[in-house]
Amino acid sequence: MSVNPLQEILTGQQFQQCVNFYEADQRLDQNDRLTIATALQSIALKSNLVGYTCGMLGFFAPTAYFKLAKKPAPTPWFLIQYPFLSLCLGFGTLIVGNNVTTKHLFNKAKQDVTQYPPNANVYNIWQNMSYQNIGAYTLYYFRTSFNPMFIIRDPRLATKGPLIDEKLRQKQGNNTHFTDAVGLGNYDNQGNRHDLGVVDKLKLHHGFDVSKDT
Predict the structure, then answer these.
(1) Which among 38, 162, 190, 191 is least surrounded, fewest beta carbons within 10 Å?
(2) Omega into 117 within 30° of 0, i.e. cis?
(3) Dist CA 78 CA 83 (whole Å)
(4) Residue 81: predicted pLDDT
(5) Are 127 and 106 spatial neighbours (Cβ–Cβ below 8 Å)?
(6) Is 193 strand, coil or helix?
(7) CA 132: distance to chain centroid?
(8) pLDDT per position as a tens digit, 70-90
(9) Do residues 168 and 61 touch, judged by C-beta distance below 8 A?
(10) CA-based R_g, the chain, Å
(11) How far is CA 90 from CA 7, 47, 85, in A?
């Protein structure tokens, strides 16, 4: 009896999450998929806007401190004071601002789908998604809303894992999410891979539409 390759790199809980997601996903129609994709796109766009704003504020914070406090600048010939510290603060506040906003908006969206009249199919999907993997879900629902060939196959019937290579095997267990194991959004129902181009990856990350024919 052949062993399901997904169960080799996923824990029992992770594999069950994959099955739950598959079963909920099968009940969606095209409009449901487009609704989810649009909501995820909005979250990504707003999160990046907040993240970049926080990053800019963090970057200029040391310089603004000396300006507002009217204290002598340690390096008056520099436009930016403490450039290394400013850079660290900028990156730190960008990442924190983006993650906190994504989590807040994602949880808010999960609550919004319970409003009357509720869509049980869409609700079940939101309960089986996590904000940490919002990029994979966004790509998946954009692609499946335009092309059903990208709809995930039953993980219980997997005979070979698309992304089960040596790199994934080294990450097996708690470090692997089922979206990585099944290549969510990157593989069609024949097991063929369709990677996004660099431009589309940037657009997806920043919450903009990706190519419908990719």
Answers:
(1) 190
(2) yes
(3) 9
(4) 74
(5) no
(6) strand
(7) 6
(8) 677 666 666 677 788 889 999
(9) no
(10) 21
(11) 41, 16, 8
Extract the tokens encoding 176.
Answer: 């692997």
Q: Are 56 and 97 in contact (CB under 8 A)?
A: no
Q: Is the pLDDT of residue 91 over 50?
A: yes
Output the six-digit token pair for 76.
């008056």
Give the pLDDT confidence score for residue 160 in this predicted structure.
Answer: 62
Joined tokens for residue 127 = 């309960």
Q: pLDDT tens digits, residue range 153-212? A: 888 887 765 544 444 545 554 566 778 777 787 776 666 777 777 776 776 766 666 655
Spatial distance between the Cα atoms of 40 and 102, rounded to a whole number of angstroms: 10
> Token pair for residue 60?
């200029």
Q: Omega into 62 within 30° of 0, i.e. cis? A: no
Crossing angle of helices 30-68 and 198-205, rounded to 10°: 70
* CA distances, 47 to each of 94, 127, 151, 182 (Å): 10, 20, 27, 26
Q: Model's pTM, two decimal places?
A: 0.78
